[in-house]
């Protein structure tokens, strides 16, 4: 993989670039981004070695697409139009069904591998990129059988070299499960943040009284609306289902409070403590 093109030089693409370059110093990383300031930053901090434009990707051995999912749906067919017969295109989108659909009949579909690295932070842009972001993290690969075997192998080598685990899934299941585990968490954090901002009008009180509990629970409310709005739009049906479940649990909790049923509240919390085993057990 000599020539790697990043489409989107932010946290996700940038973190891939840093560790791939570390493992393969001879690789040249080119950057393409709608945001000129981001391109300049990425160049200045060494995430990319050169700026490029879309027409250049005919020279790419690998293209990593990490831009908002609405932009991915629009741009992926054009990227595949331009990729060479031996070039590999991977994306990092948080939704998979709409993205896979956008290229399902493309003549170069076999050059594309649908990926979702389950890694990130609430920060964005090239300066948020970090080495080691992907170590021990899972990369969900969808519709793997639609990608040329040789290119699957190349991608696998690349991802495992930077410490990732691979899990295969179909795109529909991916979107259903990720709505619960990732998308709902973001809505919950955004609306928790909103509730506190709306009701606690004194910013000094929020600052002084926000311990690590509030800070860690609301962390995701610092995430980029430009990234998350199209995710919610593309995964609307699944996200609404998760919201219905969540709202019903919140209402249940409220009802138990109104009924002074604190023994049941205790039970609900004790049962939910099981999340600790689930999250520790798998790691
Ligand atoms: O940890 C975070 O800050 C993230 O938002 C990472 C996170 C998530 O876990 O929900 C967010 C979106 C990506 O699609 C994958 C991972």
TrEMBL record:
Gene3D superfamilies: 6-phosphogluconate dehydrogenase C-terminal like domain (1.10.3660.10), NAD(P)-binding Rossmann-like Domain (3.40.50.720). It comes from the Bacteria. GO terms for biological process: tyrosine biosynthetic process. SUPFAM superfamilies: 6-phosphogluconate dehydrogenase C-terminal domain-like, NAD(P)-binding Rossmann-fold domains. Keywords: Oxidoreductase. One of its GO terms (molecular function) is NAD+ binding. Pfam families: PDH_C (PF20463), PDH_N (PF02153). InterPro entries: 6-PGluconate_DH-like_C_sf (IPR008927), NAD(P)-bd_dom_sf (IPR036291), PDH_C (IPR046825), PDH_N (IPR046826), Preph/Arog_dehydrog (IPR050812), Prephen_DH (IPR003099). Transmembrane segments: none annotated. Residues 2-283 form the Prephenate/arogenate dehydrogenase domain. This is Prephenate dehydrogenase. The lineage of its organism: Bacteria, Pseudomonadati, Bacteroidota, Flavobacteriia, Flavobacteriales.
